[in-house]
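Revision sheet: structure tokens.
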Amino acid sequence: MKPFRLSRRAVLRGLGGAALALPFLEAMGCSRQHAPASEETGRAGFGVEFPKRFVVLYTPNGTVPPDFWPSSSTLRNGEELSPILAPLKDHNEDLLVLGNVSALSALVGPGDAHQKGTGQCLTARAMQEGDFPGDAGLSCGWADGISLDQEIANHIGTKNKFPSLELGVLVHGANVGARIAYRGPAQPLPPENSPYAAFDRLFSDLSVGSDDAARKTEQRRAVLGKVYADYDRLRKRLGAADREKLDGHLASVEDIASRLDRGSAPTSEACAAPVLTPDVDVDRVASMPELCRLQLDLIAMSFACDLTRVASLHFTNSATAKVLSFLGQDITEGHHPMAHNGYADPVNRERLSRISRFYAGQLAYLISKLKSMPEGDGSVFDNTVIFWTNEHADGNHLRKNIPYVLAGSAGRHFKTGRYVVQPKEVAHNDLLLSLLHAMGVEADSFGDPNYCTGPLTGLTA
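Predicted:
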């Protein structure tokens, strides 16, 4: 019998609307047993326990190292912060800037530098073989492991309406450079570029009556029932390996259905549906500053309402050619080619630093937003850690001494207000493991165990 083949054109046409969620199928051609309660939930103020939260902010194309690193190991005021980190002056005591941490796993395996850097920034495992085209004739498939945010969500997000939230700003295409979150090997999670769509998903139930909410739930369950039926019909035509992959997908669909009518229980009095600026073009580069703020507002409010405890925001594709001219009329070239031009030229250096400084400003905005949301005797920020990551150290694919920044103590787990340089070069696997421990997740390693030696030294309180 001739084997069943599922064309990409058939997938894109729909299969009852379910096909866009299909994984790539063959038919298409480190441990302690129990953490203390404070490690698992975090604390805001004294004596009152609140959940921990985790955020990833991903920015592409490296930075300008001479303009990035602080001038002192202690961050007591803005004077120690670099030109790029200057927007974080009001939050200097909340930062951990990490030196001598490299993406060593991203130096090997399939793919070009951007593919490996992006695909491994949260997975810390070599990419799969595949047909995504890269530079110099290189290629790869999807990442080959679960991403850090999803590992954390599996432990702290299972009781929330949304285990995790994946948002984007001007991230387009279904390729390695457009994905940082992975449910598992070759299971990428697409970011939502539209704050309007994210708003409807997150907050529509906050503003409708019980009858309307019940009707919405009934309609959504009917849609999921149709999705499940379509997937089930497809499953019967697949081989064993594809069926196993699809079964995992179906389990996720069933999990969504089981949570559809689960209400949210706000942990902060700040919980309220945010107001969205009307008529922002989500595909226009000039809209980027407003889009960034809208998406960050949604993350902050979803935390305050305890709709989710894990979120990521992906700022543009890896190797993006988008011209960020909203930062100045003198920026007339795409970010990626500008980054490749390097920083030997003072003019190009200043422009690249301006772009990195813009991203630092987004981190500062999120910190301020979370601090403004009261929770117990403190704020939502008190139990949050934000991980600012990049796929490179600079625009010419350097993957050593990546500009990693943590913001927030994760319930006093981290001792912040410092620039900590590791005594010797370590793989970023150890950093990801440190973040797992901060969120109360028991593990001895993360990603490729060959690069993991244990949590980073000198970070904890």
